[in-house]
Amino acid sequence: MTKLFKFIAIAEGISYLVLFFNMLIIKPTNIDLYKTLLYPIGMAHGILFIAYVLLAFLIKKEQNWSFKDLAIVQMASLLPFATFYIEKKYVKNA
Questions:
Q1: Mean pLDDT of 16-29
Q2: Residue 14's pLDDT is what?
Q3: How many domains does the chain have?
Q4: Within-domain flag for 49
Q5: Is 86 helix (H, G, I), strand (E, B) or coil?
Q6: 57 falls within a domain
Q7: Distances (CA, A) of 44 to 2, 21, 61, 68, 86
């Protein structure tokens, strides 16, 4: 389960950055491409976000996280680049 969480954490972080890239770079230059990409990128990011949150709860006991650690891991899903940090610092034994 830990390997899956590491993969989801990285994929969720990448999808978050791709979503930002679509909003900040592509939207001002090409509105049609932005609209075309918005749904698939947004859907992928949403599914990965939900998987990240659920898997964090599931591996809490396996990783011996305190409530504070779990809160930090959960908050990381809201910040760009934070899931990469969590994957390196908090997830052990993968």
A1: 90
A2: 94
A3: 1
A4: yes
A5: helix
A6: yes
A7: 21, 15, 27, 28, 20
Is residue 73 one of the residues assigned to a domain?
yes
Structure confidence at residue 35 (pLDDT): 87
DSSP readout, 15-84? HHHHHHHIIIIIHHH-HHHHHHHHHHHHHHHHHHHHHHHHHHHHTHHHHT--HHHHHHHHHHTTSTTHHH
Taking the C-alpha atoms of residue 89 and residue 81, their distance in angstroms, rounded to an integer, is 13
Distance CA 32, CA 14 (A): 23
- Residue 94 belongs to some domain of the structure: no
User: For 39-88, what is each residue's pLDDT tens digit?
Assistant: 999 999 999 999 999 999 999 998 888 999 999 999 998 988 898 888 88
Domain span at residue 66 reads 2-89
When pLDDT is cut at 50, 70 and 90, the band that residue 93 belongs to is low
Q: Return the SS3 of 6.
A: helix
Q: Are 2 and 83 in contact (CB under 8 A)?
A: no
